[in-house]
Backbone:
């Protein structure tokens, strides 16, 4: 009897420990599920070039994550990329004329969308579109621009 | 030569097919045992899981520690030692956790299962049960199989968490990586899907390792030598199966 009880206790302790470990892994090691619980609203933004922006990339304002990218697709009608963002409902007073840019965190980090507040009295809401956008910086374009500038510069001299 | 190859191939197919049927019989009997004889399953979770805790925790700690050391040494070359947490978490959660736990599990618990069942067979305890109209598959094999299946994901999770703390201890406390960067970089690059990949792997490995241990024990030649050989085969076949499956699951997930 004594032995059965200690076995049951050991098993219970083991299962509890395992559950705690699973819980830790699913909640503490990932940061992306912090949004899934709260209410969100969806806005769209069109970019000439999205670079390597991925689904679930963060949307940041002043460096704080306020939302996620939910879809990146090419719109065949307007011939530019259409990005859908979901933003937490608590941030419902972002000016409508805010500016969205695709930025990179760190030199080798992943890309995210940075919002820069505008001055309008109207706010972004479900279904609205961000008009002012700034494309991702593509290194090849930068290099070619730089080379081109140097060329033209030497011509003028 | 060709004839022998043909016969060994047919032999392999027969064994493989028999293993599948055996697996289906275990599965078919599992729900009834879980409901009616839960005590038997608890006993086996204790044997397979709780008694493996010590080896899992020690190994997890040192695997994590070595990831911290290696990660730091190599990432410091690119001034990226802040990513040590990401490196350790990816390695532990997706690959090393499930695979090493499965290998340790088959060495610690699988061999115990195989030799126990093999010895029961050699001393004709299984036949005696059949004489008393007790089905040894339900009374002996299914609880042991279920014990292993339940234990593996839990052991893997414990291994990974202890490993993370081992990596944290080495990288942050010994080598001076910033603790905020350690956790923050990990959280921003790991996604819930990565965690699930590891959990699904550990479930699959749990089924495979327990199935093979029970199968080898049940089919052991009932002699001292036969039981020894069954124990060895358990470890060897489980290791091969786990590594092949690991590759396949990773290929599917990516």
Residues:
């Amino acid at each position: 009897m004594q032995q059965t009880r200690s076995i049951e206790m050991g098993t219970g302790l083991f299962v509890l420990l395992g559950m705690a470990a699973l819980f830790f892994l699913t909640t503490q090691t990932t940061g992306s599920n912090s949004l899934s619980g709260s209410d969100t609203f969806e806005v769209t933004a069109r970019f000439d070039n999205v670079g390597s922006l991925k689904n679930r990339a963060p949307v940041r304002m002043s460096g704080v994550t306020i939302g996620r990218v939910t879809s990146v697709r090419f719109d065949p009608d307007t011939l530019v990329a259409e990005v859908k963002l979901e933003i937490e409902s608590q941030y419902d007073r972002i000016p409508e004329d805010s500016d969205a840019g695709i930025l990179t965190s760190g030199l080798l980090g992943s890309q995210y969308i940075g919002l820069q507040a505008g001055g309008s009295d109207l706010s972004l809401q479900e279904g609205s579109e961000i008009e002012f956008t700034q494309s991702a910086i593509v290194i090849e374009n930068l290099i070619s621009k730089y080379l081109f500038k140097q060329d033209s510069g030497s011509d003028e001299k | 030569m060709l004839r022998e190859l043909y016969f060994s191939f047919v032999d392999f197919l027969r064994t493989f097919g028999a293993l599948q049927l055996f697996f289906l019989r275990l599965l078919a009997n599992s729900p009834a045992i879980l409901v009616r004889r839960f005590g038997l399953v608890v006993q086996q979770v204790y044997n397979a899981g709780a008694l493996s805790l010590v080896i899992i925790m020690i190994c997890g700690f040192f695997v994590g520690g070595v990831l911290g050391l290696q990660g730091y040494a190599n990432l410091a070359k690119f001034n990226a030692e802040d990513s040590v947490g990401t490196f350790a978490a990816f390695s532990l959660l997706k690959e090393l956790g499930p695979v090493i736990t499965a290998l340790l599990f088959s060495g610690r618990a699988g061999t115990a299962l195989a030799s126990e069942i093999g010895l029961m067979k050699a001393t004709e305890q299984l036949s005696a049960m059949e004489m008393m109209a007790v089905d040894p598959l339900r009374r002996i094999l299914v609880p042991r199989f279920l014990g292993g299946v339940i234990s593996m994901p839990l052991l893997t999770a414990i291994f990974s968490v202890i490993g993370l703390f081992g990596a944290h201890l080495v990288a942050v406390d010994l080598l001076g990586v910033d603790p905020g960067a350690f956790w923050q970089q990990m959280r921003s690059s790991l996604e819930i899907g990565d965690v699930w990949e590891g959990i699904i792997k550990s479930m699959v490995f749990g089924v495979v390792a327990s199935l093979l241990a029970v199968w080898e024990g049940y089919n052991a030649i009932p002699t001292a030598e036969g039981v020894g050989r069954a124990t060895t085969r358990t470890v060897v076949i489980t290791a091969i199966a786990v590594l092949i499956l690991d590759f396949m699951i990773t290929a599917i997930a990516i």
